[in-house]
Structure formats: C-alpha cells, structure tokens
Amino acid sequence: MPKVRRSRKPPPEGWELIEPTLEELDQKMREAETESHEGKRKVESLWPIFRIHHQRSQLYDYCLKEKIADQNLIAKWRKQGYENLCCLRCIQSRDTNFGTNCVCRVPKSKLEEGKIVECVHCGCRGCSG
C-alpha cells in the first residue's frame, strides 16, 4: 500500500479530520511490512498487509457510500485532462449558453494575457491546468 503522499499544495479543508486515521493505517502497514516472517509460510507473511489494505479501502468505500466524497467527481479525476476538475457542472454542456464547457476549463495559455476567469457555477478560477 503506498504511503499517504501529499503534494506541495496545502491539503483541502477537512483533511485534519481524516489524516489521523490514514496515518494510523500507514503506521500499521509499515509494521506489517517489517514484521519478521520467521516460521511462517510465504503467503502467511502477506496476510497482515492485505488486511490493512482492505481496511483502508473500506474507509474509502465508506466515504463514497455515505456521500462524504463525490463518487462521480472522483471517477472524472481518474481520466486524463480532468485531474483538477473543480465540479461536474463545469463539464456539462447543457448548463452553458453555447453548448460548450465552462470557461474555467479553458487552459490559461489560450486566454487573453492578464484576463481573470471565474466560473459562474462554483467560482473556480481555472481547473484545466
């Protein structure tokens, strides 16, 4: 299980609520990986690692089922070009006057220099990169 990696960007609001749980699972994972496997079959030494991985996945699934996290938005984040998508309304063409994406989806390099863009739906200032 990969370590909880954080980018240089500050974490989102509410991160402090879930961080201790993820850190605890990460610590348990490190302990399971360094645990001695003396006297155990090869497959038995991996069982604790799979259990911890399963716990972490259950936490993620719980957040999705309880609608703490937006499953559809996260699914879009996994697609190329949508990694920083701010909300789903910005890619729905039916919500715009000309049947296109929201203005915040236009790359900053394609806009007039110095022009400030702000989404009318969510206030995003450019989530396309």
From TrEMBL:
This is Protein BUD31 homolog. It is found in: Nucleus. Residues 1-20 are annotated as: Disordered. InterPro entries: BUD31, BUD31/G10-rel_CS. The keyword Thylakoid does not apply. The keyword Disulfide bond does not apply. One of its GO terms (cellular component) is spliceosomal complex. Keywords: Nucleus. Belongs to the BUD31 (G10) family. It comes from the Eukaryota. GO terms for biological process: mRNA splicing, via spliceosome. It comes from Armadillidium nasatum.
